[in-house]
Design brief:
22% helix, Beta-lactamase, signal, 12 helices, EC 3.1.1.103, 29 strands, alpha+beta, Lipocalin, hydrolase, Serine hydrolase domain-containing protein, 8-stranded antiparallel β-barrel
Length: 546
């Protein structure tokens, strides 16, 4: 089997040179993205109709020795990893060793019961409501520069949690915690660690000989690309002591990832059941069908359906996208975080996608009067975050600008209560969802962000002294100190010092997607506050202590 793939790779590599229009176009994109070969760069692979259509790179995978990318460069996948973790669950279900309808606590009894059953499928599709561990670590003041974290540390942190963000199946909130817990299930059911199980049951059968989950930080990996980020003085290489797998932590090559893509493009593939498993779109409790499968987004692009996932980490970006209707897949990896691998992949995809004809284009909905547009205006704030968005009307056009932005983006009507961004029709705004705790949902290509309409305090930042004191969280095992300094409310906790300002009355933030909600009207009444962050952590309790 391996010799067959090697022969196919050699033969199709020769054919690449015959595809001059595509090759020249992608070469031009590479030149634009990486002007200097001595800089970090990008490597790209493309298969179509079962043949390697393009594989090339530009830039250096190692700046210390000025080593260029090559045909078998190994790189980290970051969140593209999730589809492989999900595939391990799919294999175990196929083997009859578990069911994704089972209660997670059957395999992880240490996890608290939060009033409703969290099933394995809820971990797979990010509807479990479990808090995102990355955000919890930040709220705890974790020092990434001097230490890393492991799966075991994340598990222990999650077993301390007393609450969730939502009921299982109620909504999708992307959380890396789900996939760390899926690894624990794989290991307890199979009796092997994830590295061993995935090699035996997935990578070896698929001849993905250069793909693996990391299992220690000391093993030398030949031909590995290193991540880089730009500074005023040049490029730096981020160092990490973290060894956490499941949500990320996998490495692969362009040839291996393109071989993996055949699972989604070839209906007769031996592992086609995994394609069905990974791309299955479950429904929410309200009957709405999701745009996330299991470790993959199932997203529309123009007239096509795509299976895709991106990855990002300090100093790197990755993207995988498969388009069955075109029998095509694209893989992009960049070891410079300023290179947008997602945009790069769609620029390549556009070389093959026909623009929809006028008759086939989505009709534009225009039945919005000025009064109707004004009904949407106001200040909105992300649920479980201090990120705010102003919706306003200018020149008969609805516009949106976030508290982190400076210029309003025009919104184009698509239907009753529904708009899209003029600069990106795949980012949509849906107002006034029935039976929901939100007033606005913003869909970024399948990742949903939830907002509520709020009323800002008329006279913010008054009587700040009533909030001062020390507050302790049992769930995070950390103390927050609040002081009034120079008429500002200052929050201090490990590795952080923030100035908080009031938005809604009694609700503070620092424009970092974290909000602090105090309860009580005076110093004697305020005995606690709750912290919510980045939309994926809700109501961490901090109680006042002496």
């Amino acid at each position: 089997m391996k010799s067959f793939y090697l022969l196919l790779w050699i033969l199709t590599a020769v054919q690449v040179h015959a595809q001059s229009p595509v090759k020249n176009s992608i070469d031009a994109l590479l030149m634009e993205a990486v002007p200097e070969e001595s800089h970090p760069g990008v490597t790209v692979g493309l298969v179509k109709d079962g043949q390697l259509l393009y594989h090339s790179s530009r830039g250096s995978m190692n700046l210390e020795y000025q080593l260029p990318f090559n045909d078998s460069t190994v790189f980290g996948l970051a969140s593209v990893t999730k589809q492989f973790t999900a595939a391990c669950i799919g294999i175990l279900e196929k083997q009859g060793k578990l069911s994704i309808e089972e209660d997670v606590r059957k395999y992880i009894p240490e996890l608290a019961f939060y009033g409703d059953t969290i099933r394995i499928k809820h971990l797979l599709n990010h509807t479990s409501g479990l808090r995102n561990h990355n955000v919890l670590l930040d709220l705890k003041g974790f020092d990434y520069s001097h230490r890393g974290y492991t799966n075991e540390m994340i598990q222990a942190l999650m077993f301390r949690q007393k609450g969730t963000n939502n009921a299982p199946g109620e909504k999708m909130l992307y959380s890396n915690t789900n996939y760390v817990l899926l690894v624990l299930i794989v290991e307890r059911v199979s009796g092997m660690d994830l590295h061993e199980f995935s090699k035996k049951e997935l990578f070896d059968p698929l001849d993905m000989e250069h793909s693996f989950f990391i299992h220690d930080l000391e093993t030398l990996v030949p031909n590995r690309a290193y991540p880089y980020f730009a500074t005023d003085k040049g490029y730096n290489q981020p160092k990490s002591l973290t060894l956490c797998v499941g949500a990320g932590g996998m490495e692969s090559t362009i040839p291996d990832m393109l071989r993996w893509s055949e699972l989604f493009l070839n209906p007769a593939h031996d592992f086609s059941y995994l394609k069905d498993f990974l791309t299955q779109r479950d429904t929410l409790n309200n009957g709405e069908r999701m745009s996330y499968g299991r470790g993959l987004f199932v997203s529309p692009y123009k007239t096509l359906t795509t299976y895709n996932h991106s990855g990002r980490d300090r100093g790197m970006r990755s993207q995988f996208i498969a388009v069955p209707a075109l029998n095509l897949a694209v893989v992009v990896f960049a070891n410079d975080e300023n290179i947008n691998a997602v945009n790069f992949s769609y620029q390549i995809l556009d070389l093959f996608v026909q623009e929809p004809t006028e008759a086939g284009q989505k009709a534009t909905f225009t039945q919005h009067s000025a009064a109707a547009l004004n009904a949407y205006t106001g200040t909105y704030q992300e649920l479980n975050s201090d990120l705010r968005m102003a919706i306003y009307v200018e020149n008969d056009t609805l516009k949106a600008v976030s508290s982190r932005g400076s210029t309003g983006t025009p919104l184009i009507p698509e239907g009753p209560n529904r708009f899209s961004r003029i600069d990106n029709p795949y980012i949509t705004y849906a107002f006034g969802q029935e039976d929901a705790d939100d007033d606005l949902q913003v869909d970024f290509g399948g990742a949903i962000f939830y907002f509520e309409r709020i009323q800002l305090a008329d006279l913010p930042n008054q009587h700040l002294e009533i909030y001062a004191g020390n507050y302790y969280s049992k769930e995070l095992d950390v103390t927050y100190v609040l002081e009034v300094i120079d008429q500002q409310l200052v929050l201090t906790y490990p590795n952080h010092r923030l100035v908080l300002t009031e938005g809604q009355k009694g609700v503070f933030g620092a424009n970092r997607r974290t909000k602090y909600s105090f309860h009580g009207k005076n110093k004697e009444e305020i005995m606690y506050f709750e912290v919510a962050s980045e939309g994926t952590v809700k109501n961490i309790l901090f109680e006042r202590v002496n």
